[in-house]
Amino acid sequence: MFEIGKEYKRNTEIHGPYGGQAQGGISTPKNFPVVFVFTSDAGEQHGYKDEYRDDGIFWYTGEGQVGDMRMASGNKAILEHAKNNKTIHVFEYTKKAFVRYIGTAECLGYHEETRPDREGDERNVFVFHLDIDSVDTASQVTEPSASYGPKNVKGLKNKSLKELRRAALSSSPTGASTKSKRETAYYRSQALKLYVVARSKGICEGCGSGAPFQTNSGPFLECHHVHRLADGGPGHPQNVVALCPNCHRRAHFAKDAISFNNELKKIALEAEKNAL
Hints:
By secondary structure, the protein is an alpha+beta fold. The chain folds into two domains: 6-132, SRA-YDG (PUA domain-like); 156-274, no CATH class. It has helices at 10-18, 73-79, 150-154, 161-168, 178-200, 245-253, 257-275; strands at 7-9, 26-27, 34-39, 51-52, 58-61, 87-95, 98-116, 122-133, 214-215, 218-219, 222-225, 240-243. The strands form three sheets. Strands 1, 2, 3, 4, 5, 6, 7 and 8 form an eight-stranded mixed sheet that branches. Strands 9-10 form a two-stranded antiparallel ribbon. Strands 11-12 form a two-stranded antiparallel sheet. It starts with 6 loop residues before the first strand and ends with a helix.
């Protein structure tokens, strides 16, 4: 339905052909087996803090701006998407009215926590645990007898560049349990970090300088995802670069951050061509 990394005008290019609520963070078209999820930094002022966690799972805040959230409407649609044979599609806002397609997702569960609503009153919110797939199906691999537990993550440091790339593109076996899917997400995110640093050969892919220092596990470089939502989470190697701390901060906070990130996208694509 959508191309990963491509921008769409929300009203005309998403809701035009598929329907669904054109406002809000969760949209549930009646005539298609889909749930559209939208995330934006602007939502934080209303208590909607969405973020990737260290285990590779994306925490997405449910809908409802005032009072305790209820497990109904969009929230229920996310939680029960698998039971209802509906696919979650995730988008992030890039500018007003425009969103970038991130990929499909599976809800692995949720937890509840207390946060302020838009009026500043404390309320109960739902935080859904989404395993977002930002890799084209054709690129994915499933390891034979795949098992992605803690021992397998430790073994990543002994893998070759080619093996790390394969691990970064791994997917859960068909019919895998929720626990297995969580382990796969973590395994994939850790493999991606190791792969990108190994691909860089210890050289910052932003400025071309050597890593500022060496650690026990190799050169100190930080992984930067050239698309905001994927920052810190799983994704395709062609969307990630290894940066020195200065370039990493520049990519996030500099006045020329947008143009710098556009340049990093080209660098990442070229680095992948040379690595293959």
